[in-house]
Write a structure and sequence with these properties.
By secondary structure, this protein is an alpha/beta fold. The chain folds into two domains: 96 residues, Methyltransferase, Methionine Synthase (B12-binding Domains), Chain A, domain 1; 129 residues, Cobalamin-binding domain (Rossmann fold). It is 60% helix and 9% strand. The protein is built from ten helices and five strands. A five-stranded parallel β-sheet has the order 2-1-3-4-5, sandwiched between helices. The longest helix has 25 residues. The mean pLDDT is 93.
């Protein structure tokens, strides 16, 4: 640790500081991330610039190493927690400046299921990628997903399940969307240990995401397509 103690963040130039923040995020050092965010803001950086260059940039590295099996869930949760420390400072400032987010996601574990570690990880990684995330928590009936998605103008509805007995409830949510004629308004992503790609297709989801890193990549891809279609229209 002695080497870390020798680094005085305020003495680093902007590029060095961003690189150091990448390392600190990777190591899950929340206080250092908060200090770094405040230093960059103090140097006149726009909140959106701090978010994308320092935090999203750092979480992208974490996401890649998680996908490649170099980092594991506990480390990613620590990194995401450090990022949340930085986000807590930036969120009110981003709201004031009306900064763009990539998209909005409603996420929750389905009715009858109380598992949330996977869902939490996806939510944190999505925030780390620049999405606005509305976490519904666990045990969510259809109404929670659809009312929140409609009220908040969400782009994505994400559902998680860890039990084979609760998996079919995902289809209930999608079927209700179809009945209400709103299925095409949302990108529906599903995930959880017992699921697979075939199941995702069978229930009519847009995509099955096997882990949080895949969820972020998939969400970015679909949102970009949605925006391109809107422009073309």
């Amino acid at each position: 640790m002695s080497e870390e103690d020798d680094i005085i963040l305020s003495e680093l130039d902007d590029d060095e500081l961003v690189q150091q923040m990448f390392d600190d995020l990777y190591d899950g050092l929340k206080e250092e991330i908060q200090e770094g965010v405040n230093i960059l803001l103090g140097r006149g950086w726009q909140p959106y610039e701090v978010l994308t260059k320092a935090l999203v940039g750092g979480m992208t590295i974490v996401g890649k190493d998680f996908r490649d099996g170099i980092l594991f869930v506990p480390e990613v949760l620590l990194a995401a927690n450090a990022m949340k420390g930085g986000m807590a400072i930036l969120k009110p400032l981003l709201a004031e400046t009306g900064a763009p987010t990539i998209g909005k996601m409603v996420i929750g574990t389905v009715k009858g299921d109380i598992h949330d570690i996977g869902k939490n990880l996806v939510g944190m990684m999505m925030e780390g990628a620049g999405f606005e995330v509305l976490d519904l928590g666990i045990n969510n009936p259809v109404e929670n997903y659809l009312d929140t998605a409609e009220r908040e103008g969400a782009d994505i509805v994400g559902m998680s399940a860890l039990l084979t007995t609760t998996m079919p409830y995902m289809k209930v949510v999608i079927d209700t969307m179809i009945e209400r004629g709103i299925r095409d308004n949302y990108i529906v992503l599903v995930g959880g240990a017992p699921l697979n790609e075939e199941f995702g297709k069978a229930i009519g989801a847009d995509a099955y995401c096997r882990d949080a890193a895949v969820a972020v990549e998939t969400a970015k891809e679909y949102v970009a397509r949605k925006h391109n279609r809107a422009k073309a229209g």
